[in-house]
Amino acid sequence: MTATLERPAARSVRGHWIDDWRPEDPAFWANGGAAIARRNLTFSIFSEHIGFSVWTLWSVLVLFLGPAYGVDPAGKFLLTAVPALVGAVLRIPYTFAVARFGGRNWTIISASLLLIPAVLAAFLIKPGVSYGTLLLLAAVAGVGGGNFASSMANINAFYPDRLKGWALGINAGGGNLGVAAVQLVGLFVLAVFGAGHPGIVAGIYLPLIVVAAVGSALSMDNLSQARNEKRGMRDAARQPHTWIMSLLYIGTFGSFIGFGFAFGQVLQVQFGDVFSTPVKAAYLTFLGPLLGSLIRPVGGALADRLGGARVTFWNFVAMAAGASVVLLASQLKSLPLYLVGFVALFVFSGIGNGSTYKMIPRIFALKNPGDEHEARRLSGAVIGIAGAIGAFGGVLVNLAFRQSFLEYKTADAAYLAFIAFYALCVAVTWAVYRRPGQSLTGV
């Protein structure tokens, strides 16, 4: 006990590696552990925030693609679906990378990789560029989507179970704010420089990316224990709860990121008489992602207090209601009601993001009583898998909008699909985690 009080985190001679990390030990946590975790959380949030901005860069850049680019609405939805797809795929190897390289080291690498899509977008987007080139540039921006998975897996290892909902909610919420931030940057560029300068949006992020990489190098740490958990993904893939939570995360995060990519385009297509110019749509597109991001930590805190499954269950009920309001507003052609429903969807998706991620470590703590290391090993891997599959929901949202507009000239079919999916999530959450008599009703 004396050694713990004097040296809460034993560092090896390699510098930023921590060899002794016991967050569940109250003395360890009080005598330096909490401060180290907060420092890593702070720089993790900033790096992840920039990653989200780069990932969703094309939700803004498509607003700059006027008639001179020759891209129709269906083509624009594809341009936003591609980075969502690439980001979803990259989340699996990014989660592995934490164990392979260390959380700090991989944050430096992943932040530095953001320079590639930012530089390309800053200099190559101009009238006359081929649609194939635009697709390639959009795909490269997908590297920003991987940052979330590695960041969440890393922070999950730093915090004790009683604080995971809050810590993961703060980490993810700060990252999610990157969606709203890049849309505000886009609004600024549209208002000040006009729609003819899309490269400025990406150029603004170049110095911020450098700050993220340097800050991570100077202030973050690696946990040695993470390097001993390389089989976590394989073992997690054998757990039924991995796939159940992935389904639920499609409904929460998939909705958030999908709507974040698509909202501006949907407004322009469905209410073209009101949003006749990109800047008019940009005045509203940031609002939903902003509120959804800010409220995500609230979802985590509510889950800490009330239970993740309870919050998630009622949250999906609310999301189904929100999608129903959007469908009604679309049929009535009521813009105010439409905005109310869509903002509600963003808010509830943010709450659900926090509550579902709180459920993951709790599930494996209950399934592995007394084995803290095994619970943390599996939950860290499941966070990576669920994060990847959940991000794929963003692709599905954009493809649903694209197909609905192509077939019916309206998004109503997409809204019906969303309502049906949220109803499925309500049923699954109740059957597995809320039904009386189930072994995991305490999740």
Describe this entry's structure for a reader.
Residues 1-13 have low confidence and may be disordered. The longest helix is centred in the C-terminal third of the chain and has 37 residues, at 372-408. The chain is mainly alpha-helical and 443 residues long. Helices cover 79% and strands 1% of the residues. It has 18 helices and two strands. The two termini are 32 Å apart. It has a single domain, classed as Up-down Bundle (Growth Hormone, Chain: A), CATH 1.20.1250.20.
Brief summary of the model shown:
The protein is an all-alpha fold and 443 residues long. Helix content is 79%, strand content 1%. The chain has a single domain (12-434), classed as MFS general substrate transporter like domains (Growth Hormone, Chain: A), CATH 1.20.1250.
Give the topology string: H per helix, E per strand: HEHHHHHHHHHEHHHHHHHH
Which of globular, elongated, flat, extended, rod-shaped describes the shape?
globular
Number of contiguous helices? 18
Q: Quickly give the CATH architecture.
A: Up-down Bundle
Mean pLDDT: 89
Radius of gyration: 21 Å
Question: How much strand content do the residues show?
Answer: under 5%
The CATH homologous superfamily is called: MFS general substrate transporter like domains
Largest sheet: 2 strands, parallel
Protein structure class? mainly alpha
Helicity, in percent?
over 70%
- CATH topology, which one? Growth Hormone, Chain: A
Widest β-sheet, arrangement of strands: 1-2
What is the class in the CATH system? Mainly Alpha
The termini sit apart by 32 Å
- Tell me how many strands there are: 2
How many domains would you count in the coordinates?
A: 1
Low-confidence stretches: 1-13
